[in-house]
Specification:
Four copies of one chain form a homotetramer.
Chain A lengths: L1 E8 L4 E4 L4 E4 L4 H7 L5 E10 L6 H13 L4 E5 L5 H10 L6 E5 L12 H14 L3 E6 L2 E4 L3 E3 L6 E3 L1
Parallel strand pairs in A: 1-4, 1-5, 5-6, 6-7
Antiparallel strand pairs in A: 2-3, 7-8, 9-10
């Protein structure tokens, strides 16, 4: 089974700029994370954008939808900021992409930090995408949700069923 | 969905004894790993034993089978050393436990080390156990294998289909 | 020999707020760092403030000077943001505190990040403070500088002799 | 000031072999540690051997003494296993090397582990070596000891004055 990972940025990939003291984006950490996880999956990795999901526009979402629809793989994982993950999931669902399982995931803490949940979530999303039926899902907190059945709880930082 | 995690030790949980310079077992790191992963799953954690899987006897395996069969949950993840993971999977399959999805996972590098694959594998196993049909599986390297379709490649440290 | 550590914040102690995605201060990481370093030094730890050194006012500096002067210990390490470390060193020197060795140190990357220089700098500052003659010093990049002989190079993030 | 670091192995540099599950030596982590510490010191790094200090023979010690004596630098840091660090310090002292400050240091936990004291000890040893008068010293636990005034407490893993 071939899997496409579409990288869009989000907390997952934020780094600390030691000269300015701010968080920023450089390259994605996904290749390093896949190495650490000893992944033997057949993965095509593609960086679509590297942005904070709060800055994501409709055009950005349209581009993600296009890439998810047009890529060859039937299993697609999208790394994404958690704040608007559900919005992008909705845009993907609205596109009615046939025969593809699409799983969005992200992290609450940047991978570059010792305490990141990123590796756990990546292992989770890559597993769900292999076995869930076609559709658009969010994989966070060890769980999976259909795109229209979840929201991020801003107070706890966790995803929950609506 | 309720999930039972049966802890048996393995590289996952090895620690460095700074007085002797040897690796040893103390408490399981699973609770810390679930916290790091921000898991919101309904998990019952049970330490069955804390041993190197090379030291596992038939009696040990029988105890693991008993716990997997007798626990209330229909979804069971077993943390296990990789060297004899497939043997334990075989013992579980031989027990013909009805209606349960059992997923064994482990790590090549102890969680206490910076470079561990443990968190990735745990996220993976917990995801597979929620969606795979009843049966006994191994989840390693981002993949899942039926118990009778995999082996550990000693040269690469990776699991592969037989 | 007794050593006083005055904590003032700085990058050393910044943490990632996973709900807001911003860096912030909570408790100091110094006790954890001393444990990790297996420090057997006789240390009194005192949090004077927890702020970014760019936000430090003259009143803040006066308070640091007061605490450095009034504490019982003759060896004082001050954890401090790097941006205005030299300014605080100058304020300390201006106070003409007799018979005390005062060493300021900090970090370019928060201790909570995997790649922090904090532990190295702390080991360095605690060592210099035990053996340097009375005076005010900056300990960064493995080096020590007299307060009036260094500056932070904003382009490289390193301290250098002026 | 130029500093020579003589690498001899020890816990500092032990790594986890994921195929055998054993600790072993490969390359020294010193260059990576110096980068993490943002060291701006003028350092010549030389790997003399990579062994467990319990396996160190008289010939090995003679080689370390030779290198410490013959190198151009007057400031020498030696990374060393803690178990026989004091023995090597004694051998160095017996050689009556004139005009050189020699500081031995090590770690209780390998640098490759998240919880290592190595970076703290390295920052400490590199600082002491710049300011202590000629002689042979051990730098551990944030402290420095003359070679004939310390021992490792096997029960606590800490160095103490005799």
């Amino acid at each position: 089974m071939q899997i496409r990972i579409l990288v869009t940025g989000g907390t997952f990939d934020k780094e600390y700029d030691e000269l300015t003291g701010r968080l920023f984006f450089r390259d994605t950490h996904l290749p390093e994370m896949l190495r650490r996880g000893r992944s033997m999956l057949d993965i095509q990795l593609e960086t679509v954008m590297m942005i904070d999901s709060l800055d994501m526009t409709d055009e950005d979402r349209a581009m993600i939808v296009t890439r998810a629809r047009d890529c060859d793989e039937r299993s697609v994982v999208i790394s994404h900021g958690t704040d608007t993950m559900v919005e992008t999931a909705r845009a993907l669902a609205a596109a009615s992409i046939k025969g593809k399982t699409i799983v969005l995931t992200g992290a609450m803490v940047p991978y570059a930090f010792g305490s990141s949940d990123g590796l756990f979530n990546l292992g989770s999303a890559l597993s769900f995408v292999q076995v869930l039926p076609p559709g658009v899902y969010v994989a966070m907190n060890g769980q999976h949700f259909r795109w229209d059945e979840c929201r991020k709880n801003k107070a706890t930082g966790c995803f929950e069923t609506v």
